Amino acid sequence: MRLAVIGAGAVGSSVVELAADYGHSVTAFADSGSAVVDPDGIDAEAVLERKRTDGVVGSVDPSDALSADYDTLVEATPTTLGDAQPGFGHVEAALERDRHVVLANKGPVAERYADVRELERESEGTVLFEATVGGAMPVLSTIADFDPRHITAVRGVLNGTANFILSRMATEGLDYEHVLAEAQDLGVAEADPTFDVDGTDAALKGVIVANVLANDDTEYTLDDADVEGIQEITGSALELAREDGRTVRLVAEVVEGSVRVGPRLVPENAPLAVSGTRNIAQLETEHAGQLNISGRGAGGPETASAVLADVGRL
Amino acid sequence: MSDSTDEVQSYTVRLELVDEPGELLRALEPIADNGGNLLSIFHERGNVTPRGHIPVEVDLEATPERFDGIVDALRDAGINVIQAGAEQYSEALTVVLTGHLVNTDLSDTLSRIHESSDATVTDLSLAAPAGTTDESSARIRLATEEGAVDRTMSAVRTVADEKDLRVIEPLAAGGDL
Description:
The complex is a heterodimer.
Chain A: E1 2-6, H1 10-18, E2 25-30, E3 35-37, H2 44-54, H3 63-66, E4 72-75, H4 87-96, E5 100-103, H5 107-111, H6 113-121, E6 127-128, H7 139-146, E7 151-157, H8 160-172, H9 176-186, H10 194-197, H11 200-213, E8 225-227, H12 235-243, E9 246-255, E10 258-267, E11 278-285, E12 289-296, H13 300-313
Helix pairs in contact in A: 1-13, 8-9
Chain B: E1 9-17, H1 23-33, E2 37-43, E3 54-62, H2 64-76, E4 80-84, E5 87-88, E6 91-99, H3 106-117, E7 120-127, E8 136-144, H4 149-162, E9 166-170
Helix pairs in contact in B: 1-2, 3-4
């Protein structure tokens, strides 16, 4: 398949790098200021080298990538809230041309799910977005396989940065500020970790799951989620939990039409008590009990794997 | 069958005692002091609960009205009443509260939770690393009647909200609270 990749961050760049491995070619690649287009497939290595050294992927206008020849648009620009632009506009442009869309950007399906589905209905193209929830983990495709109507609840640890901080605080007895600084030094937390620690990122993932489970009956956005972060968790609270065989995890919970994200007490040996940057999603199925999916929830190649798995499903 | 409130009936009370000298006597006094007639005491000395408490089963006779007084007196004395008569406190849930727990009257917080939800505090652990005038944390184990977990949680949230305390709630997944 021919891919147009929009967004040249860790995920977009990894998709370009790995596409050939999965038997696809990249015919267009754009960052926020430039683009490269080649109907015969771009030279991934050369383009990524140019991005690293000159900070641009090519010499044409980014909008040229949207009008290039491709079968599937990979939308990997940063997640934006509210109108979810410019990501939403890229989705719209592709669907209007009857092309498929694979999203790594959470904005369009977390904030404008009904609009995306409406555009998809009018198009020959299909929209898939496995990479938006749980990085490499096949959460949405498993829900689709089981049929959303047979999934009664989804609970998960869906933010690696927050989980790293909580698990370090618990094992080392260190306070929040100290561990956050350490996480930033290690590159686990970004310079501005707000969306990770205040629960927004996990909530967006919860909202996307809620949209999928609702089967187009109800639309959810970030405003529908009840969100609490981990900034106020103290070392002594974690110590009290530990004494009782428990720990605290930032859990996203989608159950009976509600989306809730907040620090919760979980037994220390429970599947949900994953440590470090690891993620987990626990599906409560109607006929088959609990199903746990665990793995790497973020990272360039990890998330790109989920994007390319979606491309393979088309 | 009689609903008379002055007719003596027999009851079984299940308690969990801290493993300390004098604790059993301390638990029996409120029964005698409130008009209960002790029938038997089953003290499972070798059997400890996961939290290191000793389960004790007490059979007694009392009128229904006096029995209620006995249970209240036991709780006032800080004794963990796990089961009283037919009413079993079968669901336990644990929460951690953080904030100005001591300045906002922890004892009042606990009794308000009890009053508005009928849940019993069966265990309390307080950590105040920066002293009691600063923020502290408390782990509270509550025993509720079966099916009353939601009501108990909402009572905890209401009190915490009023006193500007943060609640780390348990996750109900798999019934493990």
